[in-house]
Each structure stands twice: as structure tokens, then as C-alpha cells.
Amino acid sequence: MDDQLKQIGERLRGLRDVLDITPEEMAETIGIDVKKYEKIEAGESDITISNLMKIANKYGVSAEELMFAEAPHMKAYFVVRKGQGMSVERTKAYKYQSLVSGFVDHKADVFIVTVEPKPGVRTIYKNSHPGQEFNLVLEGKMELYIGGKTIILDEGDSIYFDSSRPHGMLALGDRAVKFLAFTVK
Question: What is the pLDDT of residue 180?
Fold first, then answer.
């Protein structure tokens, strides 16, 4: 994962250089302190998917380009075979597999997200991003926090919500939860 963080940081720095954007402006875009942003560029700190999406939307690139260094090419359709989508492990507990990374100008981001259980951990990291989100639990069970509410979702359950509200999740039980996350810009 450390190598992935460094690569994402390098791509963010490259984007700033190409567009002549200061670290302060980039930090302001995602609502964090410039020192924390500089740690992200140095590969010393993680960046959330929602913050990558904010940068991508504001500066006209795809989140996949920032995460995977791959520009989309397909215009008519894009197929992802089981287990073959481009993936990135955000932390030891979260893995995102993109299902739309190869389609040019996609209007939504679609991921299969795997969250490993953290026995004894009750803290839920929350983030927010513009738009709306749909989650469908494929395997396992999760606790989803959305703007002050806690909702338990079992395998087969789904939820559609305003993703500008702070939200986050935890895997429940002793096995990972895998869900489809569909974000509309």
C-alpha cells in the first residue's frame, strides 16, 4: 500500500504542476490543511476516495487517472470480468475495485468495495462528497453511518443516499463485507 500512496501523491503533484496549482489551492479544494495535503503528495498520508473525486471533478480528470494512472479509452461499452477491475487498497481495511475505469466520460463512479472487519473498533471514519450514492451489500454485514443515523445492512440490502452528508461504514461480524458503491456526480 505504501507504494500506491506514493504513486497517487506523484500523480497529484503532476496534476498540480501541469495546471499550475499551488498546494494551498489543492488543500482548499478538499477542505484540509496544506501540511496534511503535502503529506499526501509525499506518500506519507492517505487520501480518501471522496477527496480524489473532488479533485477529479474540479480539475477535469477522472478519479481512475489519479488512482491507477490509467486514462479511460472506451466510448461504446466497457466490460470488467469478475475480479478483474482495477483495484487499489486504500488502507489495510478498505479495497476499491473500479468497474468503470475504462469508459470515457462516465457519469458515475462504480466500485466494489471490500471492508475487512476490525475486531473491537467502533470508530467510523466519515467522509462526504457531492452527489448521491447507492450501496448494495453483496456479501457480509455492515454498519453504515449517515449524517447522525446508524443503519445495519445485511447481504442483499441496499441504500440510496445524499453523499454530501457525512457517511462511513464498518464491517460487522468476523468476515469482510463486500458491497457495490455507485456514486452519481
Answer: 94
Q: Which residues contact residue 181 at a Cβ distance below 8 angstroms, ignoring those fewer than 6 apart?
A: 96, 109, 110, 111, 112, 113, 133, 134, 135
If you ran DSSP here, which 8-state letter would residue 80 be given?
-
Q: Which of 139, 132, 175, 164 is nearest to 154 (CA)?
A: 139
CA distance 69 to 11: 7
- Reference 58, options 86, 16, 96; nearest CA is 16
* CA dist., res. 77 & res. 103, Å (int): 7
* Model confidence at 18: pLDDT above 60: yes
Q: What is the DSSP string of 42-54?
A: TTSS---HHHHHH
pLDDT at 74 over 80: no
Up-side HSE of residue 11: CA atoms within 13 Å toward CB? Answer: 22
Contact 140, 178 (CB under 8 A): yes
Which helix H or strand E contains 91, and what residues bound it? strand 87-91
Which DSSP state fits 74?
B
C-alpha cell at 74: 472506451
**Beta bridge mates, 111:** 98, 181
Burial of 53 from C-beta contacts in 10 A (0-12 / 13-18 / 19+): buried
CB distance 109 to 63 below 8 Å: yes
Whether 87 and 96 have beta carbons less than 8 Å apart is answered as yes
Task: Report, as an integer, the average pLDDT of 3-17.
Answer: 83
